[in-house]
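RECORD TYPE: inverse folding
INPUT: structure tokens
STRUCTURE:
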């Protein structure tokens, strides 16, 4: 699963990446439906991580903080999402960059459960059933969609009311 970070953050570029991530969620569902629920969860959580890095973190850092230092921006985004405490770092980061409180989002708990299950599969060799996989894949997709809507609302609030002048 490879995704190139958004270089200039254009709407077309972002739409393309969102469509690819959505196709990865569809692949996750297909894997679960074909008797590979573990692989489905791993694919869905990975898609969510790519989505967070490439749609929310790297583009913001490239445009606002580390202008002209794209590779460094990508490295910083990777570091924010690495290690055992990255979910704790994600909440204040998204609040600071976008004004989004992911901890208050109803889908946050489901996403955390999916991450924990994925970690048990990847690092502990555990297995899960199709119903669990389906629920976790849906949680990942719901979180991604809710995050896009929250960011759109944050952008609208930052822009303020439209004027005729």
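DESIGNED SEQUENCE:
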């Amino acid at each position: 699963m490879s995704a190139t970070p958004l270089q200039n953050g254009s709407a077309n570029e972002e739409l393309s990446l969102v469509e690819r991530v959505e196709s990865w969620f569809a692949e996750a569902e297909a894997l679960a439906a074909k008797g590979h629920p573990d692989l489905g969860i791993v694919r869905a959580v990975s898609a969510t991580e790519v989505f967070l890095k490439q749609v929310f973190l790297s583009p913001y850092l490239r445009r606002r903080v580390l202008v002209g230092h794209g590779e460094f921006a990508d490295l910083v985004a990777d570091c924010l999402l690495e290690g055992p405490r990255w979910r704790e770092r994600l909440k204040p980061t998204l609040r600071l960059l976008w004004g989004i409180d992911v901890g208050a989002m109803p889908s946050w708990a489901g996403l955390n459960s999916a991450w924990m299950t994925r970690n048990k599969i990847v690092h502990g060799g555990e297995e899960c059933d199709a119903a669990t996989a389906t629920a976790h894949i849906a949680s990942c997709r719901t979180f991604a969609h809710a995050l896009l809507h929250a960011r759109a609302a944050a952008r609208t609030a930052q822009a303020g009311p439209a004027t005729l002048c």
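NOTES: The chain is about 75% helix and 0% strand.
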